[in-house]
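Holo prediction — DP6.
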Amino acid sequence: MIKITVVAPANIAFIKYWGKRSEKFRIPLNDSISMNLSGAATTTTVEFSSAFEKDDITFSGETISEKEIERITTHLDRVRRIAHKKIYARVVTKNSFPKGTGIASSASGFAALTVAATQAIDLRLSEKAVTILARIGSGSACRSIPDGFSWWHAGKKSSDSYAESFVPSTWWDIRDILCVVSTEAKKISSTEGMENIRTSPYWQERILGIPEKIGRVQQAIKERNINTLGSIIEEDAISMHCVMMTQKPPLFYWNDTTLRVMEGVYALRAKGFPAYFTIDAGPNVHIICRSEEEQIIVEEMKRINGVQSIIVNEPCLGAHSISSHLF
Ligand code: DP6
């Protein structure tokens, strides 16, 4: 069988996914919108062979836990079931971002794995079908498959919960300046954390407001309006963290440097620079701005006490195959 290698980017959500309608199928409570990140990608090579006696999964340069191996083999089982083939795979994976930067690798990881495994086993699926399958591996992974800016339709059942590109990566040359403020692995994963969403008194309020925000974010991107886009994404990130902090048990993902970076962003805006933050399930801060302001924002952020490193991202292509393999 053929060997396939796929590169998939991580993505940053502008309208966040937090909470599931179905845990088993990873069907979210709400639609979400994201941008692919050029500076954080996973490369995965997959080869199936009837000569293999079991799946062989390795991460180049990193250790991999039993739990991670199990999540990957379960996903390979889904691919085998669809293809009606009982053959094992060799999988080698590498991340472009240094280990321990706190960047979530499940989105880029499951996007690369799904695209590579389905092609290597010779399944000819549409992009929509591949996003559905990747979503079952890790929800946000479905948004790393389409080009540029993705819209994940929540749907009500598995077959209508998929992601598609609504504008390509070339549409708008903006930046995501990722300020890494902690390299520790988070204690509570997104999967575990969002299981308790319904214990927050504010979760329904947040979900009710999302359809309107989805429309406004798409409009802002289509009009290339950084101030409108920025104010909605900041509001949505704060609203998601508000739900997280009021869940039982409460989840506080921010640290002192997170707050200093947020204040730094407010200070930049007070000086007239359009810069806006968004934060996922961790303390690291993503600053969204135009390419014109990249340099000044990077310089300002370097000065903040506690910022360990900075990764500058542009919008980029979604998961795609390449010709150089990892084995
Ligand atoms: C806070 O996609 O990692 O980053 O579906 O359980 O694998 P699972 O969760 P995951 O959750 C991402 C949550 C988030 C917001 C977002 O990316 O939309």
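READOUT: The two ends are 14 Å apart (CA to CA).
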